[in-house]
Amino acid sequence: MAVVLCSDLPQEAVPAALAFCQQHSAFLVTDDEFSGSILSLAMKEAGTLSASLGILRDCINRVICCGGDILQTLPRLEKFVPAVNAGHVRFLEDDNPLAALQNLRLETGASAANMASNLDDQQGLVLFDKNWLQEDLHIAVELLHWLADLNRGQRWYSLYAAPAANSLGICNALLSTAGCPGNMHVSLAGIEYDPRQFRLHQLINNGWVDTCLIAGNPSLMPAALKEDLKKVTTILLSPEPTDLKPALTLPVARAGVDCAGTMQRLDQVPLRLQPLFTTSRVPVEAIFNSLTGRAAV
Amino acid sequence: MIVIHGAEVYNPARGHAPQPGDLWIEDGRIITPRQDVIPEQVIDARGMIIAPAGVEIHTHVTGYPLSLARRFTLSEGCRKNPLLPSPEEAARLYLQLGYTTVFDAATSPLYAFSSYSDLRQMEGVDRGTFVLAGDHHLLLQALASNDMDYARNIIAWLVSCSGGYALKLVNPGGGLAWKNHRKAPDLDEGIGIGTLTQRDVLKRCVQAVNQLGMPHPVHIHAGQLGQPGNAVNFCNSIRALESQRAHLCHIQFFSYGLDPSGGYRSGAEEVVRTLEEFPQLTCDVGQIMFGDAMTVTADTSALSRLQQGLKKPWISNQVEAEGGNNILPLKYAPKDPSNAVQWATGLELLLLSPDPARMFLTTDHPNGAPFETYPQVIELLMSREARLEALQQVHRAARDRTGLAAIEREYSLGEIFAMTSFGPARSLGLNDRGHLEPGALADIRCYRKQADICGMFASPEWVMKNGRIVYQNGRVDTQGFGEILVARPKWDQDQLPHIKSDLENRISISFDLYALGGTKMENTREVPCTSTGF
Amino acid sequence: MRVVLETRQDCTGPISLKGINLPALFHLSQGEIWQLPLNHLSQPFVLGDVFKVDIRDSDGDEVVLRGDTRLLHYCGYGMDSGRVMVEGDAGACAGSGMSGGELVIEGNAGDCLGVAMSGGKISVQGNTGDWCGAALAGESKGMTGGVILTGGNAGSNLGNGMRRGLIAVAGNCKNYAGSCMLAGTILCLGEMGAGAGVGMQRGSLVAGTIQSILPGFSPAGLADTGWLRLYLNWLEENGFTMPASWLEKPPYRFSGDHLAAGKGEILAYEFPQ
Ligand SMILES: [Zn+2]
Q: How many domains does chain B have?
């Protein structure tokens, strides 16, 4: 079996899902591998500098956007990075991001010596999402290397525009409870992490799983993967209807609407959301807990 | 009622020598031996050593910085990773080592919910966390205007709303300086807010926290961490506290002399001599051990220095209104002269300090080494022979530039228990543990007496929490044990609008969501703020 | 001795051989082989559930995997000696972590062939998937020794993080060949895809043609081919057919990746101007 954690879930779902997977020797994956494994691997390779939104608001006076349309996905960004509003924005829009970034790094290296003594008040922000990076590990690594190069002479932060409400919250919660950001097999014997083999489409097509328990709304799942899902039995624990046709759907509560839950903001600051209404729907973690408890009896 | 029979009992409250006799336990606590009743259970502990369970005063096992750090150990995961175990696993590993109380050393208020989520996972041990505020704008502003009443209120509010147990200062003003492209301030240099200096911050915070009666005094990470020659500054920082009660953490990283070559030499003697002038101070050592380590610190200034030297990738995250979360993987190599001196300096500090109840064993996990190396450090302290042998394996700088080789002292078992149980418990203001007097929690570790010191400390025969055996024969039973220890110093509720308006100018989050956002913590125990020092 | 493991007809699900040291089967009886548990990924089987086991005397020691071999993952995982033969396609992770011996795959191999291998020889008659001879995910060091020969095409990230050893591909390879390579040699007789050598520190990539050269590489004239000739001769002895052009002229040389240590090189007989 595979459990898929979707990026609209609160982080409370994670320990419960992990315990469930451990009991059933299941695979645990997310619907957003870039925010999880790929970006994490890139950070391991090249490190990264980031800052919470309050710092970006107060310090940043120039912005580089990776990809032309990234600002459209962040309508409220101007509030936090006034430099965007002031027009101090440059866009990187090369069709070949890897080559473009390498060229920038070569330029940066040549000019780093001149910039070293000139820190003054210039602080920059590199804004990126997974689109322009083509969800590609090597491009992401090159971007973070470039950021590190920029920081030899000046102060540049990065901000990753995650594609869904809690992409990074799920990733961080997985890192904190399991040590890896998805793509793992969980059993009593331990956890095995393999971001190359344990990807949902491979698990389905290689026959490792015959059932997928999807928790949350898999809105980030590519269409091809949704096709693959037709080959296995799917069970959906979602707060709202989706375009999947699962064998079984259990409606669950949505964090911040009908239950409490913790989501992470763009800068990974945890936000504890309180319910707006009282309904009979239960949170996802309660379902995992009861499944785990029932099987234990 | 349980009786532990026939063991050598070490009760650090009564000195360092073992005492024969039975230990009686009822309702999870030690009681005076009874003549009039027959106990329900007698645990045969002949040939065993009984001591109060360990109390960890400084480690890093929870919170947002740890999820950042785990990016560097992806292929290992966290179940069997000694450097970055999951919080759940960390609690189990501590229990297996005989520790039942564990304090995580750093929580940024902005990320307090991440720490709290992790603390909740640490079933089996009593645990808590310290709240970072050495760069907190509100606090620094209040201190700068010398409005001590407001400063006390801010501290009390910050610790309470973050679910913390104590206040931690990390190189005060250093984070602020880094964000403003300045070098970290020296002790008497302005930190950029009025005329406020680092000395002022240290002195006034220590004073405020002691006035609040918090169970643990200010937990201080001083300036110039890791720099050769920093012992001078550290001794000055100690004097800056003006004989007030405080705790200084991982002091090994602050106890370096300057070798004529520009490198490290030990400054342990000078530091220990200075500490002796101030008996109200406690310290933990932050011993390094050779092998892989992971630097996890709020001290951006120190870490960016180190990173520029090593040129290795680091993860750095700056936090509004306060410091930062910074991660850099490291490897301490025995053949590296600097690392060798650092290693020897830590041991020297431990061996030169006369009172083990004031100088505690830590590795600043995972900064100096994983906590699973404690038994190895204990062996080095208890056996000069082991120490001399180890000295042969490391770079000669450890012999030439430290006094370690000449030290003859060997710790006794009683002293080890004083430094790992009694001392830290007393420094943390937890009078119900760290000793085996009637009324104390029955948090007990039991070892089989043997010649192999390291082996003995690495595998206790059993470990008891609240009178129940939670670890034996490789099995850990954590369910239903352990609480989150919090301190909630009193503060003036009328100041809330004032704090709110000051903070909202500074942060990007609504005040109602800041820190724990008013979430009611579960499974907590409030330790009263009635400390008057000791 | 020759041990033949043939997948049973009713076996349709994937089987992981991780944890089964195939060359060690020579020391076991048929019954013992039968009872070996397949532990990896909580498979509820013993080896006898999914394989028919046949043991024969023969000149050399050899384990043969036969039947629907596409279902078999981690064939030859961690092997240190002997010979393992896959009569058909192999699944993923074949030969990963191997340190000696020979693994022959008569069909195609899946992803992660020979990942983190440190010695021995793998021959694939068909194509190989992605991450052939690469590092384990999250590790920086790829294969540290040994040889991988591919008769067909290779996937992306061929020899990623490779530290020592030789990979030769008779056909083409996809993107990122030799990415983050530390040393070693990768030869691709056909076309090498985009992003070749990104982040490489040392080592040599040799290609018939190369789709594009990254900015981190700079032209460095024509290559000195003394050492290359040795490799080419050896490959010819091992059944590779060298393109005529390779024997006529020296290849162009590019040094890089200057954004990493920059001591590596790409040799290409043709490249886009
Ligand atoms: Zn620390």
A: 1
